[in-house]
Amino acid sequence: MSELILVTGGVRSGKSSYAQRIAESSGAKVFYVATAEALDGEMKKRIKSHKKSRAKTWVTVEEPVHLAKAINAIPSGNKTIILDCLTLFISNLIHEGRSDAGICADVKDVVKALREKSELSIIVTNEVGSGIVPDNKLARRFRDLQG
């Protein structure tokens, strides 16, 4: 069975850079699965910055919602896959109108696909549960799903 590493921490705390260093040290071909969508100017800048930080030899797969399908389309073989990030994936699914059970099933499908497609998978996610209780139902739902 493949190795799975979860990189978690606060927003803009260096999680992606850390995941990239782990991937670089693996010596395998790297696939970078990105879940962010450039919906505004700020996100466009962040995505551009993230792209610049990746090695030119890495293969980038951009997919905000259908992650298991995108991961399953990656060729088999010795490789490392970075999933950046689980937080945005869950947020994207919520905005798609998915049920909690559907979101949990989608996350399980993604983990299964990662385990089957790579020797090393690195999942980047934000820590969202250490703060105050969110003041609205949607934010609480997101926090609970992100866990």
Explain what you see.
The chain has 147 residues and is an alpha/beta fold. It has a single domain, classed as Rossmann fold (3-Layer(aba) Sandwich). Helix content is 47%, strand content 20%. It contains six helices and five strands. It has helices at 15-26, 41-53, 67-72, 86-95, 100-117, 137-146, and strands at 3-9, 29-34, 59-62, 79-84, 120-126. A five-stranded parallel beta sheet has the order 1-5-4-2-3, sandwiched between helices.
Could you give the topology of this structure?
Layout: E1 3-9, H1 15-26, E2 29-34, H2 41-53, E3 59-62, H3 67-72, E4 79-84, H4 86-95, H5 100-117, E5 120-126, H6 137-146
Parallel strand pairs: 1-5, 2-3, 2-4, 4-5
CATH topology: Rossmann fold
* First-to-last CA distance: 25 Å
The name of the CATH architecture is 3-Layer(aba) Sandwich
Structural class: alpha/beta
Strand content: 15-25%
Q: How many separate domains?
A: 1
For the largest beta sheet, what order do the strands appear in spatially? 1-5-4-2-3
